[in-house]
Amino acid sequence: MTNKRTDGLAVDDLMLTDGGLETVLVFHEGIDLPAFAAFPLLDSAEGRDALLRYHREFLTIAADAGAGYVHETPTWRANPAWGAEVGYSADGLRRIAFDSVAFGTSLRDEWSGTGGFLVSGCIGPRGDGYVPGTTMTPDQAAAYHRTQVGDLADAGVDLVTSFTLPYADEGTGLVAAAAEAGVPVVVGFTLETDGRLPSGESLGEAIEAVDAATGGYASWFMVNCAHPEHVLPALDGSAAWASRIGALRANASRMTHAELDEAEVLDDGDPDDLARGYVDLARLLPGLRVVGGCCGTDARHVAAIGAAMTRAAG
């Protein structure tokens, strides 16, 4: 496989991204998201307005910080199984892919910052994300993700990024699908409170397995949907695989995934405390360049993270 780590991806020293899109929409905006799917909002004027309000806050934060920006399309649930659950056919999901990329491109046209701007196609897991459930082989995962990855590539994304993958083989299949489509890819794993994937694999084992199976095609790896205190036990700053982690999108809450699933009130933690956790992790992650938030985080958290990372770098 041709290495796509840097092809077409001008990554600044620091690039910011957004926070917990779905938790902001549900808990702050009071918007109902069946199956936690945000992409149907693209199909209404009110929904698009909500997405614009949300994303413009983060663009302003990144521009003011002098950082670059990575825009994620709202397509985490726009894969075959979850799309069908909210009433979208394969043709409907392909239309969503093109519409979501056009939406991201329109935001890039508004970008006033001095850093780079990437439009990333967001890919979610086939299953729950927190629970592996019925797992796929790498070949099965490639077949499952091939259509969405291909649609986003055809729509013109700069890269695709997976979120909350709970086991290595799904990451391997996703990378294979991206290689077939000729698009750069970021593999995002989630971790439990013990620093391991929901499958029980260590983070290092998962990264090394994906790289070994795909010839290191992934541009970088990401950890998301875990508090920094849960990520820290997973890291070995001396291990080569740690340098492959280029993105971090942590939860505001220290709750377990099971507790978050049951929570009826949003735990948004403390933005400054969360930012300090990022700085601690950055000391062990020499390749870290992209930072943002996940569940429970909003513009306050990303602003604090960006400021803390900038101060630490200076």
Automatic annotation (TrEMBL):
Zn(2+) binds at residues 225, 294-295. It comes from the Bacteria. Pfam families: S-methyl_trans. Residues 3-309 form the Hcy-binding domain. InterPro entries: HCY_dom (IPR003726), HCY_dom_sf (IPR036589). Its cofactor is Zn(2+). SUPFAM superfamilies: Homocysteine S-methyltransferase. Keywords: Metal-binding, Methyltransferase, Transferase, Zinc. PROSITE patterns: HCY (PS50970). Transmembrane segments: none annotated. This is Homocysteine S-methyltransferase family protein.
